[in-house]
Amino acid sequence: MSKYKHLGKAGSEEHIDSVMAVVRRSIVSELQKTIDSLKSSLIDVSFDGEQEDI
């Protein structure tokens, strides 16, 4: 088994499509990490504000 995936001949339409799919997946992954981080920060801020009022 190889850890690399053959994406087709460089410059071919299939290769370009495959590379763009990898790029899109990495962008979606980064966006999901950012969303999760923002949600976590919002929860931290929300609960910290409630504890100060007590």
Keywords:
mainly alpha, elongated
Short description:
With 54 residues, the protein is mainly alpha-helical. Helices cover 76% and strands 0% of the residues.
Textual characterization of the structure:
The chain is mainly alpha-helical and 54 residues long. It is built from 1 helix and no strands. The chain has one helix spanning 13-53. The longest helix is centred in the middle third of the chain and has 41 residues, at 13-53.
Oligomer state equals single chain
The total of helices stands at: 1
What is the number of strand segments? 0
Determine the N-to-C terminus distance.
59 Å
Low-pLDDT regions: none
Secondary structure layout plus pairing:
Layout lengths: L12 H41 L1
